[in-house]
Design brief:
Number of helices: 7
CATH topology: Bit1
Number of domains: 1
Strand content: 15-25%
CATH class: Alpha Beta
Number of strands: 9
Radius of gyration: 17 Å
């Protein structure tokens, strides 16, 4: 069973200093493929990043005595940081040679890597750019299937695609932590089906007060500390 915060004060997503800050800090790298002239659709990239986080958490190598388990535990015991970078061509091929898992969506490819020390990036990932992950949806996303998990984005926040991908990953992770083993297995069996949608402004107060898992950003980049970025709406948690 993955770590679950004992209390809100122990949350990995909060601006207040807490015991997690005393632990060695790790980061989960995510790299989105951004070939020139063929960028992925924004919503598909967000959904693929969220599924990539879940695929890593559900992988047997990340659990028990698996080869990635210690790195995942170290990461979960500290702040839950995710950083999204972009790659194309030879950069992408070099990234694919590092330990991790590539997850594909309709138009997006995202590779998730084993957590690494905050100051210990492999050179082939360290030189990839964080900025420039501006993506658009060619057509508005269709309404989310109410029978599937939906990660609701705060309609009042402006986030780059890279930032939003990381936040969607946070929301997926909080949902994963909140589920029972049987519920996790059932979700895995669907291929971690999910949707990422921007909430209707009129629904946002209800969502944040519903008791569903809420991501409160620590404020390291782009947005103010303590901002609610995502509400994780899994059917088993509603």
């Amino acid at each position: 069973m993955s770590h679950v915060p004992a209390s809100p004060s122990d949350s990995p997503f909060t601006s207040e200093r807490n015991p997690r800050d005393e632990a060695p800090q790790f980061v989960l790298p995510l790299v989105v493929r951004m070939e020139r002239g063929a960028p992925p659709a924004r919503t598909d990239a967000l959904e693929t990043a969220a599924r990539a986080v879940l695929v890593l958490l559900g992988d047997e190598r990340a659990q028990g005595d698996g080869e990635w388990a210690e790195a995942v535990r170290n990461w979960e015991d500290a702040r839950i940081r995710k950083v999204v970078r972009r790659a194309r061509g030879a950069e992408w091929r070099r990234a694919e040679a590092l330990p991790g898992i590539t997850v594909s969506g309709k138009s997006a490819e995202v590779r998730v890597f084993v957590p690494i020390p905050l100051d210990g990036w492999p050179k082939d990932l360290a030189k990839l750019q964080v900025s420039g992950t501006e993506l658009d949806d060619p057509e508005p996303p269709v309404a989310a299937d109410p029978t599937q998990p939906v990660l609701w984005l705060n309609p009042e926040l402006e986030m780059s695609a890279g930032k939003a991908m990381a936040q969607a990953g946070h929301g997926a992770q909080l949902a994963w932590w909140a589920l029972s083993d049987a519920e996790r297995t059932a979700w895995r069996d669907t291929g971690f089906a999910l949707a990422v949608r921007t909430a209707d402004p009129a629904d946002w107060p209800r969502l944040t007060g519903s008791g569903l898992p809420v991501v409160r950003d620590a404020g390291f980049t782009e947005i103010a500390p303590g901002s609610c970025t995502v509400v994780a709406g899994h059917p088993a948690l509603r």
